[in-house]
Amino acid sequence: MRPIGYMYKRVASAPEWPNAPAVTDIYALSDCLSEYFADYINFWRHNGYWLFDSPAVIQSLAEEHSISLAGMKLFYYEAHDLQYDDTSGKWVSFEPESSFATAVQPPTGASLEGFDVTSFYAGTSPECSPLSCNSQVGYALRTFLGV
Q1: Residues of the chain with pLDDT > 70: what percent?
Q2: Cα 28 to Cα 12: distance, rounded to the nearest angstrom
Q3: Quick count: other Cβ atoms within 10 Å of Cβ 142?
Q4: How do the domains of the chain map onto residue ranges?
Q5: How confident is the model over 86-123, as pLDDT tens digits?
Q6: b vs e for 89-107, b when ≥16 Cβ sit within 10 Å of the residue's Cβ?
Q7: Cβ pair 39, 13 in contact under 8 A
Q8: What is the 3-state secondary structure (H, E, C) of 30-85?
Q9: Nearest Cα residue to 54 out of 98, 1, 102
Q10: pTM strictly above 0.70
Q11: pLDDT one-digit tens code per residue, 19-52
Q12: N or C: which end of the chain has fewer CB within 10 A?
């Protein structure tokens, strides 16, 4: 696993459509349900994975732009070393976008909250997560949880 960065997010309650009582919150990397702390890309302080190298960078942006982080949760993300290439049907390596400096500072302590699969088709920010961005999540969660 490789460190890819941090993000403050407003954690959303699980919508009704999964019909999976054990799922209470959505922690997906995408912002389809659990929104990012801001429309951060225009600040141009993200790294080559389109996240942030440290919590301090986000906190500094929030202070500079009067963005409240109250009610937000800080997430640290790691990614598998390979990504699936739908065109070739193979797992391939990937690197951060080289036009942005990337030096993620791993946390001194962390707790595993879960896993996610996120598309990155456009290569300009984390995109949709099949587990939170469409109604297929209901089937996937019911199957996974056996409900």
Answers
A1: 84
A2: 9
A3: 14
A4: 2-99+112-145
A5: 889 999 998 899 999 999 999 998 888 877 778 776 77
A6: eeeeeeebeeeeebebeee
A7: no
A8: CCCCCCECCCHHHHCCCCCCCCECCHHHHHHHHHHCCCCCCCCEEEEEEECCEEEE
A9: 102
A10: yes
A11: 667 777 878 888 877 889 999 999 999 999 999 9
A12: N
Q: How far is CA 51 from CA 32, 55, 145, in A?
A: 16, 10, 30
Structure token digits, residue 130: 């099949």
Tokens of 110: 């962390």
- Give the whole-angstrom CA distance, residue 115 versus residue 17: 20
The residue whose two tokens read 């997906």 is 28
The answer to whether 50 and 43 have CB atoms below 8 angstroms apart is: no
Beta-bridge mates of residue 73: 9
User: Smallest Cα–Cα separation from 34: which of 105, 116, 97, 109?
Assistant: 116
pLDDT digits (tens, 9 = 90+) for 133-145: 665 444 444 444 4
- How many residues are listed for the chain in this entry? 147
